[in-house]
Amino acid sequence: MKRLLINYETMAGIFIFGFCSMFADFLSDISNHSAATVRFFGLILFLLILMGNFVLSGLHNPFMIPIMFTEEKEKSTSRNMFDKFTHSDKKLKNSSKSLERFSKLKLDYLILRLDNYNLRSSSESKDWIASWEELLREWEKIDRELMGKPFSEEGFCYHIYPHVVLPLAFALGASVNLRRPLLLYHCQNQEKFYKVIDLKDPREVSYESETYVIAPKTIPEDLNLDGGKKLILHIVISARHVENFRLHDDHFNATNVAIVYNVDLEPKDDWLPYVQEIVEIAKPLIHRYEDVDVCLICPSVVAFALGMAFSRKGSLKVCHYFSDGKYRPVFQLSEIEGHPPFS
Fold it and tell me: Higher pLDDT residue, 124 or 96?
């Protein structure tokens, strides 16, 4: 009934009001004083339908669930950051308050913080896997609590701020894959938050872009490559950094490719078309090689979205840039295949 009212309220209102008016005219013709009452009744029904649609249309939108992943160790600092994030959008702020009232989830539970690892200096895959498992475990707890809750007809949608190192953002995106709708937020100058990637339909990450953006530069220009054993793929979105194949220790023994946007993306723009352009070029390429290492220079939200797009390539490894100026693989997507999250 609710869906009927949402989709057909205008038609139904016109029909009811028109029918009542004609019936009132009929009563007038036979000198019945009830004509005015019938017209009034029809008008009231019409107004009730319009008001009902206004109320129900709010329930039609997915309930907004804010999630922040962070390496920040101080609880007070991370909470202040989370408050700025949720207060950046009035609806997101109101959803956060409603979530505390109608579920067991407190706002602090939505801040997924790494407590035990200093990942940026660790080249041990086991440390990266443990960190990924820690964040993912907490996220799945939230997800289980939310499943089945009648927040709205359309369920819920995650609003995510991935304030973590790039390989971890990539791994988290690959973990959720296309199983949950979400929006990704970018923070500019540690102050202002922007919605930059809308994946309420997660499949859009692999769609052809509907909005024109300039195609990225590729190195080499001709990517009609035969494939082979190993590919090292550099993905760059930055006006300050350039690709450098020699920064990967294994570059002599692999095919080296770069997909490059030499720009800093504007936070007020839609970043999804840039991701879609990269995915369109990279996805067929990575499936021609047995092993793929991905080296990233980009915002963490882009890394998260790329992880979603490339999650099916189990042999893909994402690399971290270490303080000695070298990229090394730290997380392989096959770790996810053994126990697919959110399934």
Answer: 124
Query: What gap in Å lies between CA 158 and CA 160, rounded to an integer?
Result: 6
Q: Is the pTM of this model over 0.70?
A: yes
**Cβ count near 58 (within 10 Å):** 9
Helical (H) or strand (E) element with 132:
helix 125-146
Grade residue 147 by pLDDT with cuts at 50, 70 and 90: confident
For 105, list phi and psi in degrees, rounded to 5. Answer: -85, 125
Amino acid at residue number 206: S
Q: Which amino acid is at 245?
A: F
Integer Cα distance of 114 and 167 in angstroms: 14
The DSSP secondary structure of 24-83, one letter per residue, reads HHHHHHTT-TTHHHHHHHHHHHHHHHHHHHHHHHHHTSPEEEEEEEE----HHHHHHHHH
Do 235 and 294 contact (CB within 8 A), yes or no?
yes
- Alpha-carbon Rg for the chain in angstroms: 26
Q: How far is CA 118 from the centre of its chain?
A: 26
Encode burial over 60-70: b for 16+ CB neighbours within 10 A, e otherwise. eebbbbbbbbb
Residue of 123, 165, 126, 175 whose CA lies nearest to 329: 123
